[in-house]
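User: Design a sequence. Structure:
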C-alpha cells in the first residue's frame, strides 16, 4: 500500500498548498461553484473575507445573494454564469462601498461540475492617486494658461495705457477752456469718466494676470475694509437677500493692497448677489484665522504653510454645475447674461490672492449654494498709518527734459507742463535725449522719461544720466513693464516710478515732489 499512501500524501500536500495559497494570497482570491441560478463560494482568501466582513466559516458555501446587496449579487451571479457557460475569461471593474476593484474570472471544469476561480485587486488608492495627478495636471495647465494670457495682457496694457494717456490728457486740457456748466464741458467730463473706467479695466486685467504691482501691499486689518464694502453693496441688494457677518475681531494682519482686497470682496459679493437675484437668500461673510500644514497645501505647492486669514463668502443660491467648476477662474468665462458680467471677476480674485502669496478655493453643490474662501498669509509687520495729503502749489519755473517715443504723448506732456510754468525740452529718442543731456548736464532741473523705448530703455537712460550727474531727479514712466518695478527703479537712483496713464495734476504733483525733495538735499 506504499504507493497509495504516497499518493494520498501528495494529494493532501497539494490540497494544503492550494488552501494556504488562497488563504494568504496578497490579492483577493476565490473559488466558486457555479450554475445558471446561483454562484457559491468554496474557498476565499482571508483579505477577501475581511473585505466582505465575514469569517471563512461563515463564507464557505454562501451564495452571492447571501453575501452582497441584491443588485450587486445579481450582477456577479450573471457574470459568473457567463464565464463558465462560455468558457471565457472575464475582466470586470466594480465599485462596492465606495471602493473600486478590478476582477478577473476564469472557468474550471472538473468532474462534470462548473467551477470558477478568480482574483480581485483593490484599485481605490491607485484611482485616487490618478485623480490627484489629473487634478495637479489641470492646475498646471490652468496656471500656464493664465501666465500666457498675463504675458499678452502686459503687452496690451503698455500700448493701451499710452492711448489712454493721450485721450485723458488732451481731454483735461480741452476742458480747461470750457466755460463752467457748458454742454461741451459736460461731454468732456463723460469722456474722462469713460477713460477712468478704461484705466480700471486695464488694472483688472493686470491683476488677474498677476502683473499688478505687488509693492502696493501694506500690512492691514481686513475687517474694516469688509465693512466698507458692505456699506457700498447693501443699497444695491434687494430686500430678499439677507447679509450675515461673522468677522473675528482678533484676526492677524495681512499684507495686501487695500484697493485690491476691496475689489475681492466686491467681486465675490456681486457674484453671490447674482446667484440669488431671482430667489433671494442669505449672503454670508466671515473672517477667521487658521493654521495650514504642508499636507493641507498639496494642491497649492507654491504656498508656504503657516498662519492664514481666510475670507469666506457664501451664498444660498443654486450652486455651480460640476462640469464648469474647473473653468470658473478662466478669464472671460461667464454664465451670466449679456450686460451682467465680463468674466473677469473670479480671474481677478484668483490673481490678487496669488500675488498676495495666498490662494482661493470654491466649494459648491447644485441646490445647496456656493462658498468661496480666499486665504491670505498672516504677517507680523506693523500696520502703517496713512499720511494725509497736503495741498501744494503745482506750478513751477524749472527746466524739464521730457522723453517719450510716442510723439503724441511727448507733445501733450510739453503743453501740460508749460501751462504750469515749466520750461520743457522734448525728445522722442532715448539716444538723442542722452546726447542732449551730455552736452548740457546742468541745463535741466529734472528728467521725465518713458521706460519702454527702442535703442535704450528708460531705466538704462536714467542710469547713464545719473553717472553724468548723480543728483539729477528722474521720474520713470511706464504703462506696464516686467523689467522694472518701484524698488528696482529706486535702486538705480530713480526718484519716482509713475504708472501711465496719469492726469495733469498727478504728473504735476509728482514732479513738484521730486523737485522740492531735491532742493532740500
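Assistant: Done.
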Amino acid at each position: 500500500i506504499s504507493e497509495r499512501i504516497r499518493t494520498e500524501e501528495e494529494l493532501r500536500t497539494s490540497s494544503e498548498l492550494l488552501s494556504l495559497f488562497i488563504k494568504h494570497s496578497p490579492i483577493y482570491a476565490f473559488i466558486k461553484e457555479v450554475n445558471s441560478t446561483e454562484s457559491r463560494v468554496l474557498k476565499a482568501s482571508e483579505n477577501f473575507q475581511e473585505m466582505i466582513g465575514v469569517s471563512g466559516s461563515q463564507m464557505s458555501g454562501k451564495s452571492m445573494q447571501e453575501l452582497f446587496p441584491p443588485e450587486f449579487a445579481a450582477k456577479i451571479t450573471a457574470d459568473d454564469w457567463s464565464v463558465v457557460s462560455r468558457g471565457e475569461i472575464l475582466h470586470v471593474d466594480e465599485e462596492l462601498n465606495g471602493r473600486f476593484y478590478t476582477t478577473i474570472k476564469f472557468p474550471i471544469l472538473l468532474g462534470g461540475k462548473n467551477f470558477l476561480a478568480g482574483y480581485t485587486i483593490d484599485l481605490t488608492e491607485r484611482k485616487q492617486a490618478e485623480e490627484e495627478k489629473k487634478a495637479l495636471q489641470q492646475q498646471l495647465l490652468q496656471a500656464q494658461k493664465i501666465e500666457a494670457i498675463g504675458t499678452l495682457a502686459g503687452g496690451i496694457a503698455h500700448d493701451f495705457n499710452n492711448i489712454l494717456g493721450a485721450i485723458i490728457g488732451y481731454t483735461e486740457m480741452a476742458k480747461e477752456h470750457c466755460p463752467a456748466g457748458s454742454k461741451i464741458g459736460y461731454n468732456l467730463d463723460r469722456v474722462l469718466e469713460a477713460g477712468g473706467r478704461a484705466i480700471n479695466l486695464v488694472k483688472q486685467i493686470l491683476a488677474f494676470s498677476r502683473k499688478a504691482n505687488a509693492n502696493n501691499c501694506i500690512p492691514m486689518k481686513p475687517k474694516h475694509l469688509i465693512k466698507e464694502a458692505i456699506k457700498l453693496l447693501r443699497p444695491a441688494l434687494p430686500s430678499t437677500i439677507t447679509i450675515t457677518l461673522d468677522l473675528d475681531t482678533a484676526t492677524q494682519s495681512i499684507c495686501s493692497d487695500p484697493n485690491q482686497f476691496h475689489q475681492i470682496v466686491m467681486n465675490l459679493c456681486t457674484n453671490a448677489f447674482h446667484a440669488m437675484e431671482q430667489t433671494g437668500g442669505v449672503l454670508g461673510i466671515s473672517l477667521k484665522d487658521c493654521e495650514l500644514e504642508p499636507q493641507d497645501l498639496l494642491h497649492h505647492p507654491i504656498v508656504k504653510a503657516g498662519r492664514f486669514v481666510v475670507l469666506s463668502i457664501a451664498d444660498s443660491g443654486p450652486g455651480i454645475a460640476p462640469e464648469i467648476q474647473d473653468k470658473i477662474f478662466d478669464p472671460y468665462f461667464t454664465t451670466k447674461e449679456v450686460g451682467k458680467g465680463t468674466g473677469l471677476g473670479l480671474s481677478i480674485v484668483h490673481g490678487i490672492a496669488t500675488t498676495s502669496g495666498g490662494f482661493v478655493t470654491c466649494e459648491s453643490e447644485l441646490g445647496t449654494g456656493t462658498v468661496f474662501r480666499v486665504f491670505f498669509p498672516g504677517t507680523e509687520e506693523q500696520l502703517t498709518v496713512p499720511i494725509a495729503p497736503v495741498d501744494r502749489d503745482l506750478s513751477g519755473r524749472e527746466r524739464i527734459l521730457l522723453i517719450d517715443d510716442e510723439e503724441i504723448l511727448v507733445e501733450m506732456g510739453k503743453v501740460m507742463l508749460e501751462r504750469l510754468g515749466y520750461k520743457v525740452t522734448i525728445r522722442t529718442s532715448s539716444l538723442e535725449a542722452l546726447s542732449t543731456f551730455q552736452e548740457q548736464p546742468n541745463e535741466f532741473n529734472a528728467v521725465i522719461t518713458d521706460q519702454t523705448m527702442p535703442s535704450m530703455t528708460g531705466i538704462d537712460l536714467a542710469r547713464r544720466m545719473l553717472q553724468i550727474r548723480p543728483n539729477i531727479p528722474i521720474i520713470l514712466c511706464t504703462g506696464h513693464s516686467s523689467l522694472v518695478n518701484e524698488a528696482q527703479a529706486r535702486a538705480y537712483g530713480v526718484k519716482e516710478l509713475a504708472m501711465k496713464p496719469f492726469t495733469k495734476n498727478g504728473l504735476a504733483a509728482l514732479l513738484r515732489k521730486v523737485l522740492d525733495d531735491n532742493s532740500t538735499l
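The mean pLDDT is 83. The radius of gyration is 36 Å.
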